[in-house]
Design brief:
alpha/beta; 8-stranded parallel β-sheet; 8 helices; globular
Length: 217
């Protein structure tokens, strides 16, 4: 079954606690938390105080996505609350060393690629990660449309993971809705990151169920 990781980027932060409670009741597997520094991407999102508060509110695993220039400087702090930390292949760090540092903190490690980065760029890192995140929009803002080339990237990664007999999950983030969820899942995605599709819905519980059903088609 495909997992759902709601992105809080599009949430109403004045009601974030209520939304988290609803998502927990709806049975989502984790919460996706986008951390942006205004340098790696042209937006600034949330930092440690908000993540600390979320960790106190819920027992759901925190899926922390670092869209920051130098993630290696902050692993120790994010590891206090995260179950998984995702860094970008395109960031200014020794990616392999940073992934190993994440694991050394007892946290799952993942690498993400932007739309312009080919799937093959991270093939040699597959033995270092628990997950690969394929960005299906340009990172930085919610509400964008799914870039179709992400489907081919997911398929290429799934083929390589299967060929090598690895236990690596695939996540996709950006423009995930009832139309694109089956495309991503059909190409091999295990985890769907969804923001607007869930947080803009009148009934989030129903929206989660609809998205899960769409991905199962």
């Amino acid at each position: 079954m495909v997992k759902i990781s709601p992105s809080i980027l599009t949430a109403d932060f004045t009601r974030l606690g209520e939304a988290i409670d609803q998502l927990d009741a709806a049975g989502v597997e984790m919460l996706h938390i986008d951390v942006m520094d205004g340098v790696f991407v042209p937006n600034i999102s949330i930092g440690f105080p908000v993540i600390d508060s979320i960790a106190k509110r819920t027992d759901m695993p925190l899926d922390v996505h670092l869209m920051i220039t130098r993630p290696q400087n902050y692993i120790d702090r994010f590891a206090k609350n995260a179950e998984r930390i995702t860094i970008h292949f395109e960031s200014e760090c020794d990616v392999r060393a940073t992934l190993r540092d994440i694991h050394a903190h007892g946290v799952k490690a993942a690498v993400s690629i932007k739309p312009a980065t080919p799937a093959e760029a991270v093939f040699d890192l597959l033995d270092e990660v628990d997950m690969v995140l394929v960005m299906s929009v340009e990172p930085g803002f919610g509400g964008q449309s799914y870039i179709p080339s992400a489907t081919d990237k997911l398929a290429a990664l799934r083929d390589e993971i299967t060929r090598r007999g690895l236990s690596v999950e695939l996540q996709v983030d950006g423009g995930i809705n009832l139309q694109t969820a089956p495309l991503a899942a059909g190409a091999g995605a295990d985890i769907l990151v969804a923001g607007s599709q869930l947080f803009n819905a009148p009934d989030m519980t129903a929206a989660v169920a609809q998205l899960r059903a769409a991905a199962s088609v």
